[in-house]
Design brief:
- The strands form eight sheets. This protein has an eight-stranded mixed beta sheet with strand order 16-15-17-18-24-23-22-20. Strands 5-4-3-6-7 form a five-stranded mixed beta sheet, sandwiched between helices. A five-stranded mixed beta sheet has the order 25-31-30-27-28, with no helix packed on it.
- It folds into five domains: 114 residues, no CATH class; 165 residues, von Willebrand factor, type A domain (Rossmann fold, 3-Layer(aba) Sandwich), CATH 3.40.50.410; 95 residues, Immunoglobulins (Immunoglobulin-like, Sandwich), CATH 2.60.40; 210 residues, Class I glutamine amidotransferase (GATase) domain (Rossmann fold); 78 residues, Immunoglobulin-like (Sandwich).
- By secondary structure, the chain is of the alpha/beta class.
- The chain contains 15 helices and 32 strands.
């Protein structure tokens, strides 16, 4: 047994109190007055046992109570299993950050030196575990007292290209020490305390009694330049415009920084760039020719202290863009498609080429190159053309139908009418009431999710004076409604294709939506959703997971499903080859190194798919967070206090010991109760003395 506050044993001097009470107390006589004795001289009452302890049991109980209370304040404890009272052996988790930012200017070597120093400072009987963390944490070595093996494990460590998540490392270290039964437990956190790597969400908690010692590798005002992004536009004639963005993470301006573009290993151009402190600037490479196929590209700057982010790798592919076939009715105005045609022609991602044709002359050749069809206020009454259109949609085509005055679905041939997913009715006229508004949007749908944030566009500003009544079928989904609940936009899935039905026109005749800022993004997102278009993923970040079917399936569900029936090989940037294990569900591939990966079909002669991988952009921001902020957030007892004595936070409570003080206080209370009961009984039974006794 040991004591946390042994100085309280000086309180045993209080045992003198019951001794003094028992040796000096006087027994008082009970005097009875008699009138006949009033003239006699008063004699003091004397007792012969005045210097003798008359009740040794009460004396012993009182002394015992005081001794128990003194012992309780001395905080006795018994060491738990695996711990020896007074033993200073401890368990230490050496937690090392091996994320990409540790590649900056000698930080990794400094981290290894700190880890070796900690391992070398372990005393006999101490144990240590080695844990590394980036976006995830890994236990490199469990708790061991073999310092030679621990040192070898430290020497084998290498930095990664992945991001930072300090929380992941603390959680794993806490789980390791939670299994330890030793009284002295400590986590030594070796990191550059990157601000972007710490998310203070209250989920990092060390077990009670575990101390946290921070070892900071952060510098003061570290400078870093990073190629952050590259955008593509154009595409006419196979020539593109590439705009690269370079960010300055330092506090000093940069002038005449050469930014170079390389395609397929060939230097294309170099442009100078000026960047302010803590700012970003763009540089443009115009009229860049991109041949067919997959082209490896790089945008690079001169190397600095963190070379990992000094170039941005990308895959450039000359895309043909989308051709949207606008089918019009032959009656009415000739400008009914003006607004939708102009809206589709704006924008480069993707590049859209609208083509206007009369619906009555629908030709099968038009459907070969069409990515989507806008049936704008037109009827499809011919059975042959209706069947042709229905088969095209079922095979995966995208159809947007605008029901205006000249499009009466009652006159449509049955195959075309079935595409609507419901029954269209008469024209509702709201001109006399000033029109109605769209009051309900499905913001969870891809078309409208972009409008769910503040200041992203307001559909309620548009006024609709006429619209078609529509009764949707069971398999149709209403995406937007007017004020009274009437459907405004309905989606219907037909085979592999999608149909969107709009209950008004796309011009200014029945509504003024075409004059509102939301018209252009509404048209674009509707067509992108219907065609299942996805912006090409020119690169991924290190640590990203990409689904194999999405990667090699060409974006279609059928292609993704077919890809999973084949055998694939993943080739790393270093040339290592490994088979891709096909899972029962989605098969994910992790790209954990920067460089160019290849995904090859085993035994196929086709060109392998190339994936460009860059360092995660947050790793380029080296600004640190104060270690005290992390300490205050790790809320376990013994952590979360300002560092003392070199950063170690002392533990306040050791779960590996069993404290006994409250047992002693309970025993003292019971002794005092027993003493009171016995004393009261003896007092009531005490005989009288002196003259009163004789009477």
């Amino acid at each position: 047994m040991s004591f946390l506050t042994p100085l309280f044993w000086a309180g045993l001097g209080l045992l003198a109190v019951p001794i003094i009470i028992h040796l000096t107390q006087r027994q008082r006589s009970e005097v009875t007055a008699f009138p006949s004795l009033m003239f006699l001289r008063k004699i003091p009452f004397k007792t012969s046992n005045r210097r003798r302890i008359r009740h040794p049991l009460l004396f012993a109980l009182r002394c015992l109570a005081i001794a128990l209370m003194v012992a309780a304040f001395a905080r006795p404890f018994v060491a738990g299993p695996g711990a020896v009272a007074g033993d200073s052996a401890r368990d230490v988790v050496i937690l090392i950050d091996n994320s990409a930012s540790l590649r900056y200017d000698g930080r990794w070597d400094a981290a290894l030196d700190e880890a070796r120093s900690i391992a070398g400072g372990l005393a006999e009987g101490d144990r240590a575990a080695l844990v590394t963390f980036n976006e995830r944490a890994a236990e490199e070595m469990s708790l061991t007292g073999d310092l030679l093996t621990l040192g070898s494990a430290i020497d084998r460590l290498e930095p990664t290209d992945l991001g930072t998540r300090i929380e992941a490392g603390l959680q794993l270290a806490g789980r390791i020490l939670d299994q330890s039964e030793r009284a002295d437990r400590e986590v030594v956190l070796i990191t550059d305390f990157q601000r972007t790597g710490w998310e203070d969400q209250g989920r990092s908690r060390l077990p009670d009694g575990v101390s946290l010692t921070p070892v900071s590798l952060a510098g003061d005002g570290d400078a870093n330049l990073v190629v952050a992004d590259a955008r593509f536009s154009g595409g006419e004639g196979g020539r593109f415009r590439i705009v690269a963005r370079v960010a300055n993470m330092g506090d000093e301006p940069v002038q005449d920084l050469p930014v170079s573009l390389e395609l397929s290993g060939r230097a294309v151009a170099t442009r100078p760039l000026d960047i302010g402190p803590r700012g970003a600037a763009t540089v443009s490479f115009d009229d860049v020719p991109l041949p067919e196929g997959q082209i490896r590209g790089r945008v690079s700057i001169p190397g600095d202290a963190l070379a990992l982010d000094d170039e941005l790798r990308f895959m450039a592919t000359a895309e043909p863009g989308l051709e949207v076939l606008i089918l019009e009715g032959t009656r009415g105005r000739t400008d009914r498609s003006l607004f939708v045609e102009r809206a589709l022609a704006i924008g480069d991602e993707p590049r859209v080429r609208p083509v206007r044709r009369p619906a009555t002359q629908l030709d099968p050749a038009w459907l070969v190159t069409a990515s989507a069809i806008v049936l704008n206020d037109a009827n499809v009454s011919d059975g042959g053309r209706a069947t042709l259109l229905a088969e095209w949609v079922e095979a995966g085509g995208a159809l947007f139908v605008a029901l205006g005055a000249n499009s009466d679905p009652g006159q449509w041939a049955a195959p075309a009418a079935a595409l609507l997913g419901g029954q269209a009715g008469r024209v509702e006229d709201r001109t006399s009431t000033g029109g109605v508004r769209v009051s309900s949007l499905d913001y969870d749908h891809p078309i409208f999710e972009v409008f769910s944030t503040p200041r992203s566009g307001d559909f309620s500003e548009a006024r609709f004076f006429r619209f078609r009544a529509f009764e949707p079928g069971d398999d149709a989904r209403v995406l937007a409604r007017f004020e009274a609940g009437e459907p405004a936009l309905v989606e219907h899935v037909v085979g592999e294709g999608r149909v969107l039905v709009w209950m008004s026109t796309l011009d200014r005749f029945w509504n003024d939506l075409a004059l509102q800022p939301v018209f252009l993004p509404f048209i674009h997102r509707s067509l992108m959703h219907a065609t299942r278009y996805r912006e090409p993923q020119r690169w991924v970040s290190a640590g990203d997971l990409v689904e194999l079917g999405t990667l090699v399936g060409g974006g279609s569900a059928a292609g993704a499903e077919q890809a999973l029936t084949k055998e694939w090989v993943l080739v790393t940037p270093e040339g290592d080859r490994a088979p891709v294990e096909i899972a029962d569900g989605p098969t994910w591939i992790e790209f954990d190194q920067t460089g160019f990966y290849q995904v090859e079909e085993l035994g196929a002669s086709d060109e392998p798919l190339t994936v460009a991988v860059n360092a995660a952009l947050p790793e380029s921001d080296l600004a640190p967070v104060a270690p005290e902020r992390i300490l205050s957030s790790v809320v376990g007892a013994g952590a979360g206090q300002p560092p003392t004595d070199g950063g170690a936070v002392p533990a306040e409570d050791e779960p590996a010991r069993r404290e006994l003080w409250w047992f002693l206080l309970l025993a003292a209370a019971l002794v005092l109760v027993a003493e009171s009961v016995i004393a009261n009984r003896w007092t009531r039974r005490r005989p009288t003395s002196g003259l009163a006794r004789s009477t």
